[in-house]
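Bench log, entry 3. Co-assembly request; chain sequences pasted below exactly as received.
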Amino acid sequence: MNCHNPISSMDIPERAKKIVLAGNPNVGKSVFFNALTGLYVDVSNFPGTTVDISVGKYKDSVVMDTPGVYGVSSFNDEERVARDVILFADVILNVVDAVHLERDLFLTQQIIDMGIPVVIALNMMDEVKRNGLKIDIEKLSKELGVEIIPTTATKKEGIEEVKAALDRAKVGNRIPQIKTLMDKVIDKVDIEAEALLVVEEDENVLSRHNLKNEYGKRDHIYKLRRDRVDTIVDAIITETNEGASFKTKLGRWMLKPLTGIPILLVALYLTYQLIGVFVAQTVVGITEEIIMGQYYYDFIMNILTNFVNEGSFIGQLLIGEFGILTMAPIYLFGLLLPLVVGFYFILSFMEDSGYLPRIAAMVDRLLTFFGLNGRAIIPIILGFGCVTMATITTRLLGSKRERFIATMLLGLAIPCSAQLGVIAGLIAPLGTKMFLLYAVSIFIVFVLTGTILNKIMPGESTDLLIDLPPIRMPILKNVLQKTYLKSKMFILEAGPLFVLGAVIITILQYTGALEIISDALAPITVGFLKLPKETAQTFIMGIIRRDFGAAGLNTLAQQGLLNPLQVVISLVAITLFVPCIAAIMVIFKERSWQESALIWIGSFVISFLAAGILAHIVL
Amino acid sequence: MTLDLANKGQKLEVVNIPDSSIRAQAIRLGIYEGARLICSEKLPAGPVILQNRMQEIAIGRNLAKKITIKSI
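Structure output for the full assembly:
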């Protein structure tokens, strides 16, 4: 082991052979991972990043999965992790999508150039036939100099052959000119594979070895590799017939606005039915109110009231209204968890089916107005489920600038599902006019804020450059596994922050600070927003839990303290100001301290300003 | 001319990709200086979709404006 190996800090036995799975996104790597490792898999966060790596055992070897990448380099976090895991592999199982050889073989050839023993699983052979392609596998194997096993992993075809071939993995045919370049720097690095990344100008590997970028010929090397891959592909593929299959057509329809928008609306409606109706009402009704709200609550109270007095500070902290053993787990597991699982299920389904990149391409133009590109649609859609988890996914955006804009828009103008339910219940009886007034107000603020941020933020956002994978029916098992991993990560990240939030609120309430803030807010609520004094308390509640705020308004409306216009004004304010305490904490964790403060304070100012302007127009 | 001016169905050759980071990412997806591709779809004022065999890539309109192509 050497000091430059980042995976040496992971919990892996010293002597075990490391088999690493590598491949482009959505090529079916996880099916092979599951087939090799079975049930006993450890998922751990890769040191220094936000990327999770699955590690399992196969015979005496350790098997590691990597995020799907198009090449070994460092354009983003996923790639940096994949790079480090691949660099220090003993054997690589490269999973290749047989239908997209010109794309996938670039990574294959790069791995071969590293000099690491490889076995190739040529996957999705069933689609090769269906698309009228013919691949000369024997010739491909001869060209690359490694063993190639044709597989259809989803039907378990070829998996046993792949397992058997792992022992026969060997170094393939490297591109001679690249090997010559590597030989010149080989004595400057610890292992041969790193020499390739040095000559490919990988900044992380260069800095790890205190090298300057003076051997670099990335463009030249990439071009050599691209030429070789194209030559191989031309030699081994014959197209037996052409003509778009139904899936290709469907892919096009999803892309074009004329057909894509109706398809998106149907998809969103189905999502709403699953998340907004089934999960938010039926499932949460059971998990939050019965399982957590009754069984769990009674259980905790029965035990703890024997030891602590509920009225004391410790009692309030543990089992009070916002207690860390009462509100925090009830909210986290009863309400948030089902919603998060539901949303990640839909998202993973869309991801694996190939639909997500097409939505991103379709809305790309629209989002450029806000300095975002199409990829930002993912956190925005997720925001309607839970702003906290959406904030975590802003990581996938290309630049700091985009992450800031997306986080601001999320915190400001996207109401989460917990809040949407109560808002809908409150506004529906008031008629279409009031609903439109509310929706248009939020929409205007969203568009204005996005446009202004895009104008005043320094720098430029990244451009859209994405692969549109073929449309496929996702495999349920993989979708479920992804959902599980992402939901688990969400709970692990947001959970502790939520507990901390509960502590802060209890302290504020116990010390009377909550009351003071509420009173201090009164001039704004009464004077500027033209609302009754009591709404201030509701706003504070809205910070703790977004739906608490909306629910508080419901009570005020029932008491006849708010007229319909005042309901709309207060809803606008409550929707716009920064979300619940968990979301605020996550924002502070994800963004820098200054940025988070700006987002937090900025959205308060904007929300009261917008609601105030509305009040002065309509009242 | 630049990629944003390509028409749907047009066969084209990529002449120049100015940004080195974009160039490196694009070449892995089969888009490089000298590559011959088809503009398979163009979204109204939005991304241009390039196709090479079964492979499709969406390129944002702003990026497309920076990529030089020629018709073949």
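Chain B has a mean pLDDT of 91. The interface with chain A takes residues 20-30, 32, 41, 43-47, 49, 52-63 of chain B (CB under 8 Å).
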